[in-house]
Amino acid sequence: MRILVTGGAGFIGSNFVHHLIDNTDHSVVVLDKLTYAGNLRSLDGLPDDRYEFVKGDIADAALVDELFGRVDAVVHYAAESHNDNSLHDPRPFLDTNIVGSYVLLEAARKHNIRFHHISTDEVYGDLELDDPERFTEETPYNPSSPYSSTKAGSDMLVRAWVRSFGVQATISNCSNNYGPYQHVEKFIPRQITNVLRGERPKLYGTGENVRDWIHADDHSSAVLTILEKGRIGETYLIGADGEKDNKSVVELILTQLGQSGDAYDLVNDRPGHDLRYAIDWSKLRDELGWAPRYADFEAGLAATIEWYRDHEDWWGPQKDATEARYKEQGQ
Length: 331
Ligand code: NAD
Ligand code: TDX
Description:
Blueprint: E1 2-6, H1 11-23, E2 27-32, E3 51-55, H2 61-68, E4 73-76, H3 83-88, H4 91-111, E5 114-120, H5 146-165, E6 169-174, E7 176-178, H6 187-196, E8 202-204, E9 210-215, H7 216-229, E10 235-238, E11 243-245, H8 246-256, E12 265-267, H9 282-288, H10 297-310, H11 312-328
Parallel strand pairs: 1-2, 1-4, 2-3, 4-5, 5-6, 6-10, 7-9, 8-12
Antiparallel strand pairs: 9-11
Helix pairs in contact: 1-7, 2-4, 4-5, 6-8
Bound molecules: nicotinamide-adenine-dinucleotide (NAD) and thymidine-5'-diphospho-beta-D-xylose.
Residues 6-7, 9-13, 32-35, 37-38, 57-59, 77-81, 96, 100, 118, 120, 151, 174, 176-177, 183 line the site of nicotinamide-adenine-dinucleotide.
């Protein structure tokens, strides 16, 4: 197959492109606008005969029409992805996550193309710390931020285009990813690169918020499984039983880098900050036979720290501007 990957120069999209090239015979066309979050260097070293890069906007209907005419399937990662940015300037989130997804769905309908939509567990809102339940495919949508509400809106568009127009689509909602090529604005890379630069990690609020971590390569193998075996019209939750509170993650980063576990600062909390996410991924396991490979979070984190230590040339150019923005917000 030739697979169009939107947002393939971003964090999870680039991990997926490497996963496809390394583990399948498929070829890849990447469509990416190269916003501040896109980095062509994340796609270095891919074989010319199986990989093509197209710079462009998913909301550009003429370009999207041309590309859908020459691929066999589409995996849609492109998005504005950072909650904090969405609180300061929501507009690009509507343009890309909603209007952009709409343009892709119209092209999928016209070309009758297999379409997989990448989404997030944040569409379900948040859980109490002591809630024994986890999110399932049946949990009602209850998004909190401009980011998560635009992702929820795009999921609803996909469901409507399946039901009303017969589009051949599936949806996955994944928990928090970590791994190589993640922008330094995000929690884990921000704290690793702070420590590498001699700065203290910054925890929002009290640090008690819980995220359910999964390695980006496990997200990729799950998406490939759904693309190959998923039932049209279905939603699959993707997770890896990786619940950790933010304070514990910062302590691990500090100690793995040889610092004292309490050498962090508490900073202003995020408005509307979701307390806890937790994913029940048993449908994906039972129906499609998928399982994660990175069961050991501490080992995956150590490998990620090594990657950032070795790749300052990749993240260094964006670090100062990112920290300057956080400083303005007291974070
Ligand atoms: P990212 O911000 O690292 O990458 C997004 C990519 O999309 C960038 O390369 C950017 O240039 C591109 N892009 C943005 N707007 C575009 C447009 N209009 N046209 C074309 N390209 C555009 O994001 P990420 O963390 O890799 O997230 C990818 C997807 O996975 C998103 O849909 C996100 O909602 C979803 N997701 C992320 C996580 C996570 O933990 N990061 C978890 C679950 C789901
Ligand atoms: O400096 C920080 N300090 C801090 O305590 C930052 C940047 C974050 N945090 C907290 C906020 C969250 O509780 O860490 C947690 C993770 O924050 P983010 O990396 O911003 O991720 P989150 O808001 O949980 O959303 C991520 O997972 C779901 C992705 O960015 C989304 O794209 C995805 O949908």
